[in-house]
Amino acid sequence: MKRSLFTLVALAALLSFALSGCGYHAAKKEIDSAERSFAELKAVGGATSAPYEYCSAESFLEVSRYTMAENDFKKTREFAGRSKSASEAGLVEVKKK
């Protein structure tokens, strides 16, 4: 009886560690993608050509880094996604001009 209980607890612990690691890597991947999009916007002069989108992307990226440090991976992915969307919108605006 004790052995099966120990096995169940060990399996639950292993599963929780595995799932928490997935959240970290997904959030890190989303931040990296947002950073690349923001760097591209910055390189084409987004600060002057699309200031609203530029500031939004920069702010969302900063918040996503903060939430990553706080281990809130769901919020990290959300804010990094918003940053990436703002950067992409800024790139569209820059290409219009």
What does it look like?
It is a single chain. By secondary structure, the protein is mainly α. It has one domain (25-96). It is 92% helix and 0% strand. It contains four helices and no strands. It has helices at residues 2-43, 46-49, 51-69, 73-96. α1 (2-43) runs antiparallel to α3 (51-69), α1 (2-43) packs parallel to α4 and α3 (51-69) runs antiparallel to α4 (73-96). The longest helix has 42 residues, at 2-43. It is rod-shaped, with a radius of gyration of 19 Å.
Order of helices and strands: HHHH
Number of DSSP helical runs: 4
User: Shape, please?
Assistant: rod-shaped
**CA-CA gap between termini:** 72 Å
Helix and strand composition category: mainly alpha
Mean pLDDT: 89
Instruction: Evaluate the radius of gyration.
Output: 19 Å
Total beta strands: 0
> How many domain units?
1
Low-confidence stretches: none
Major β-sheet annotation: none
Helix content: over 70%
What share of the residues does DSSP label as strand, in percent? under 5%
